[in-house]
Amino acid sequence: MSILIKNIKQLLQVREQQVDILRGKAMANLPILENAYVYIENDTIIEFGLMEDFTNIEAEQTIDATGKIVLPSWCDSHTHIVYAGNRVNEFVDRINGLSYAEIANRGGGILNSAKVLAETSEEDLYQQSLKRLNKVIALGTGAIEIKTGYGLSVASELKMLRVVKRLKQESLAKIIPTLLAAHAIPEDYKNDKQDYINLITDELIPKAADLQIADYIDVFCEEGYFSVEDTDAILKAGATYHLQPKIHVNQFNILGGVALGVKHKALSVDHLEELNNDDIEALKNSDTMPVALPACSFFLGIPYTPARKIIDSGLPLAIATDYNPGSTPSGNMNFIVSTACIKLKMTPQEAINAATINGAYAMGLEKTYGSITRGKKANLIITKPMESYFELPYAFGDDPIDTVIINGQLFK
Ligand code: NIG
Ligand code: FE
């Protein structure tokens, strides 16, 4: 199958050479071509350039993108889209005055989702998750990380990983599975946290590694969840099985998880709504990607990650949805790009870089996704007609997408 997209008003994120990660000032640079074309064959970007240099290419399908923007599909490096049911009642409880912590303390929150997931069949869990996955692909996401963490037992965590594996096999989108067994202390272990940690390190990690069913390991390093010491022990066990960390840190409190993540060569440290100078210093001279999750701040009403401080310190930044039933029941990356501009004060160029190439890096996919580069995967968004790509973040809450191409195939 070959597709030619012609007369593109603006082609974004055009990289002649491979780029791995964009830091600091480099994030301000979003290379674009005006009046351009892209040619793809099967699942690969073969050629692109200016229309004025276009010499006839015969394609099986030609798309006229007059007035439209084309860009690489979004790389959402942090989600929890495999879950059962929802937590809409807790949403209403929060409106009526309860905090996220108060809801969790009375058995709601992650434990509530774990209970529902345990009662849901694997097939049903798969169907519910597939629906969410297809919805976010139609919103422009072409590569997505999916975490476990609503299992909280060996059986249920493996059930979640099998569902992620099936999604990975059956979807055109690129899917990266992460083991987040250390998401909360399960009810049965509430007085024996160490026993649960041992279960993760001695049983679950070796099993998941043996099945080759997880690419990364995650821990919710937070007061009332897992301490820095707990996190250290879990990441050590993960390292034995070559599971690199991508961790939840600094969502509500600064415990020292950022420096710990850097010490363990974490691929990413995510959330960072709270961030101090020691955290910034720890991230300098590391290859760890900080990841902001602005829709979580929007939904919970907690502080936004200080993106300006991060970028102006010369660090890189990625942005992701955090799609999950408790803190972010939305997987719309277009909204994330808007929120990054409106609330994190990122420029449109920085936000789009953070949602494409840097998001790809935060999943270990920067060689194959996240930019318009010859040889990369043909995962593309074609927008509705607009004056310029600045309208992507500007028209917040809109669905700006006309056509989605995933793995060289028309999805929408
Ligand atoms: O990233 N912070 C921990 N995990 C999720 C929320 C999980 C939930 O509430 O179900 C997050 O916000
Ligand atoms: Fe999360």
UniProtKB/TrEMBL annotation:
It catalyses: 4-imidazolone-5-propanoate + H2O = N-formimidoyl-L-glutamate. Pathway: Amino-acid degradation; L-histidine degradation into L-glutamate; N-formimidoyl-L-glutamate from L-histidine: step 3/3. It is found in: Cytoplasm. Fe(3+) binds at H78, H80, H248, D322. GO terms for molecular function: imidazolonepropionase activity. 4-imidazolone-5-propanoate binds at R87, Y150, H183, Q251, S327. Keywords: Cytoplasm, Histidine metabolism, Hydrolase, Iron, Metal-binding, Zinc. InterPro entries: Amidohydro-rel, HutI, Metal-dep_hydrolase_composite, Metal_Hydrolase. Its cofactor is Zn(2+); Fe(3+). Its EC number is 3.5.2.7. Pfam families: Amidohydro_1. Residues 292-410 form the Amidohydrolase-related domain. Its main location: cytoplasm. It is an enzyme of class 3 (hydrolase). The keyword Hydrolase applies. Belongs to the metallo-dependent hydrolases superfamily. HutI family. HAMAP family: HutI (MF_00372). Catalyzes the hydrolytic cleavage of the carbon-nitrogen bond in imidazolone-5-propanoate to yield N-formimidoyl-L-glutamate. It is the third step in the universal histidine degradation pathway. This is Imidazolonepropionase.
